[in-house]
Amino acid sequence: MSDFDIVVVGGGMTGSALALGAAQQGWRVALVEAAPVAKLVESPLPARTVDDFEPRVSAISVASQRLLERLGAWQRATQSRHCPYIAMDVWDGEAIGRIRFDAAELGVPALGTIIENRHLVRSLFEAVRDSDLTCLDGQSVDALEQDGEGWQLTLSGGEKFTASLVVGADGGHSRIRQWVGLPTREWDYDQEAIVCTVQAAQSHQHTAWQRFTATGPLAFLPLQPDPGEEGEQGERFCSIVWSQDTPEARRLLALDADAFMAELTSALEGRLGPVEAVSRRFSFPLRQRHSKQYVQPGLALVGDAAHTIHPLAGQGANLGYGDVSALLAELETAFQRGQSPGDLLLLQRYQRRRKGENLSMMAAMEGFRQLFARDELPLKWLRSTGMRWLDRATPLKNRVAAQAMGL
Fold first, then answer.
1. Where are the domains of the chain?
2. Which among 232, 238, 229, 188 is positioned nearest to 210, based on CA atoms?
3. Mean pLDDT computed over every residue of the chain
4. How far apart are CA 69 and CA 187, in angstroms?
5. What integer pLDDT is reported at residue 318 of this predicted model?
6. Are 66 and 75 in contact (CB under 8 A)?
7. Which fold would CATH assign to domain 4-405?
8. CA 106 vs CA 209, 222, 240, 363, 405: distances in Å
9. Who's near 350: CB < 8 A, 6+ residues apart?
10. C-beta separation of 291 from 308 below 8 A
11. Alpha carbon 11 to chain centroid distance?
């Protein structure tokens, strides 16, 4: 008998959610995470300036929110700062096309919620701490070997144990995926994403703003500081994701703060007035990666370990939570039937449920990226005409929005 039914490797937003959900179903679960839990559950410091926010944020869809609610993590997460957004304004910076999505038209309170990644992870690990799963924190997996129908894992501290199912949730450079030899299809975008926090002169209006240009998209995502900064004064913080061709990204990163803020104000066409403050800037190279197979007997990949996507639509976290929901559904059925969690047929059903949807989203994002990267007049006309038509076709536009929300 294995020491554990399921071992999840990687305790980020996706891995911790999967481990928590599987433990709540009744499986014997271990979660391996390199960071100490005490560090992950530290109370957040108040946010009063641009430097107090974490630069990494996620736009959590309604479907992802519902998963986190079932796990008992969303209620904890929303006790910290978070910002529901009620509209999304998207426009073509090279032409006149524009689309606006509005929660009121869909009859929902919000299109989604912007939340700092560390607050989600903290909330999940608070729930993990109160659960029955075994958390092996402050350690990494140093070796993975097949052991009968399951696997033997060796931790960095020398401890060995076995599992019927190993789930790789260890990110885009997944060691689990590499160790078992699951091949990927991947390519560089030759772009970098610049991320930071800014304060604008005007309220963000609880709206996500996105402008497409030939060199890449720019997104202003609304943030809400801690209590004490209510009203418009507290509605001027935004998280920035600015994807640019690598030479242009390097140029922007080399600018001093004042010059960068001026460029940023111009890039958003002054929609929120001048950018008045900017935090430290970070960047990361953009690469699309998709594992050709998500599963093999006794092993599955979820989240970035299975797929990474261009951030232009902010769907990376939501695709990962879609993986978690699908795998948990299969595991629940297996538990009720007394099946092994590592059963290949079970895992293949999970793969079928997710692979097509993930590929469709990745293909759509690549299509958008290439369409807006072209500056030929016929394509500009096509983009503008299509965006204006979709903006007026309210039922179809709302259907697109509902699909993005996971409804």
1. 4-405
2. 238
3. 88
4. 35
5. 92
6. no
7. FAD/NAD(P)-binding domain (3.50.50)
8. 18, 20, 26, 26, 11
9. 294, 295, 300, 323, 326, 327, 330
10. no
11. 14
pLDDT class of 373 with cuts at 50, 70, 90:
low
Contact of 127 with 141, CB cutoff 8 Å: no
Q: Do residues 287 and 187 touch, judged by C-beta distance below 8 A?
A: yes
Q: What percent of the chain has pLDDT over 90?
A: 66
Q: How far apart are CA 93 and CA 232, in angstroms?
A: 27
Q: Measured between alpha carbons, how far is 46 from 381 in angstroms, rounded to an integer?
A: 47
CB-CB neighbours of 256 under 10 Å? 7
- Distance of alpha carbon 208 from alpha carbon 214, whole angstroms: 20
* CA distances (Å), origin 300, targets 47, 55, 150, 186: 38, 30, 12, 19
Q: Specify the higher pLDDT residue, 228 or 177.
A: 177
Q: What is the CA radius of gyration of the chain?
A: 22
Distance CA 368, CA 398 (A): 19
- Dist. CA 217–CA 241, nearest whole Å: 8
| Cross-strand bridge partners of residue 241 | 195, 219
* Phi then psi dihedrals of residue 27, to 5 deg: -70, 155
| Tokens 């481990």, located at residue | 19
- Return the structure tokens found at 240: 């920035």
* pTM, full prediction: 0.90
- Longest Cα pair distance anywhere in the chain, in angstroms? 66
Do 153 and 143 form a contact (C-beta atoms < 8 A)? yes
Measured at the CA of 263, the angle between CA 208 and CA 236, to 5 degrees, comes to 40
Gap between the Cα atoms of 380 and 61, Å rounded: 30
